[in-house]
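Researcher: Before we compare anything, I want clean individual predictions. No alignment, no superposition, just each chain on its own. First chain goes here; please echo the sequence and then give the structure tokens.
Model: Echoing the first chain and its structure:
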Amino acid sequence: MTRTKSLAAAFYLTAVLVGAAIGVTVDRWVLRDSWTREMRDPRAMRGRIAETLAFDSTQRAVLDSILDTRNRRMDSLMAPVRPGIDSVSREAREAFDRLLTPEQRTKYEQWRRDREAGRRQERE
């Protein structure tokens, strides 16, 4: 291959990769808020599935039953390990808290309050 063809191929490949990276980034940035809200609100996720797939009322009832059964089974599987998970999380929070200076702790606590207020506002 000639030098010109090699440069053209390299340029094309770079353009495709950069375009893909930008596309994925913009897509995630634009959709992040709606997906985040849906993941926190199971009813919103169910509604989106039913709406996207144009479910009728019977299909929606079956979907609700499937997801309710799944959630109950997942809860029963998680029950024995939840205390361990909670313990690991608590230990990590305590270690993180020891890492912070008093000024950082104040900023962090304010950040947590703001974040929680935002979550409550999203639910309303």
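Researcher: Okay. Second chain, same rules.
Model: Second chain and its structure:
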Amino acid sequence: MRRTAFIINPRSARGSYQPFLNALQRKLHDALIHISESVEGTRKFIKEHDDNVDIFVAYGGDGTISSVAKQLVNSDKILAIFPAGSGNGFSNETNFTKNIGELLDKIQRGNFREIDTLMINGHFSINVSGAGFDGAVVKNFEKTSRGFRNYIKTSLQTYFSYQPETFRFSDEHVVHDGEYLMMNVANTRQFGNNAYIAPHASTVDGLAEIVLVRKFPLWYAPYFAWRLFAGKLREDQYIRYISAGELVFTTTTRDWHLDGEYTNITSPVHIKVLPRSLRILQ
């Protein structure tokens, strides 16, 4: 078995990590485990064990996974996941489940593949990030106890008061300037909870899917929601897609989320794909 360390975010899954920890210690008596209290603590732990660990397992949601993955980019280290978030978009897309036996079998085999990651004004992203309405929803959602029901409630409350933002692209060949409710930058297909904002996104094509969504009328909302969860969103009068390996634009919003974590990002914004920059267990 490859040398493995487990990094646990104790705040994920509302702090109910003890059953996972107990099960892990029963199966691996000498498991190397780090209970991380901060992103900086995670960084230091990975750096300290760079010479004696091959696989770093992240226990948590997309934000936790992203903070671990950031430290492994462009290295020979391998990322593995035990999903414990409210959406688990990235783990859904990379075939990780809440089955500890299955995870340990993957670790035993030690196979991996290389996937793309993203940089947004120097900030790292592995799944789906977004600006505008999407960022404002996450900002408000972080004030709740989380969970899918609270996410839907927060989304609806924010929608009625949120005004579209201006996005202007610097590439003269792109004619997507306009007022948009939100802009999503997708490395994978889904936010989480099987909500597919970019059904054609791929982690191995060297491209990000840019999703531009105009504010739509109430009659369109059920149609949008059905297509979102059915994985059938496509371009129409309210949705536009751009595929790009690199993109620069300006916007009137600073509200962003990066893999589900609220972040304030100042315009202009530079998006760049890092092709096949991360090894992930398979």
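Researcher: What stands out in the second chain?
Model: Residues 148-161 form the longest helix (14 residues). Additionally, The mean pLDDT is 94.
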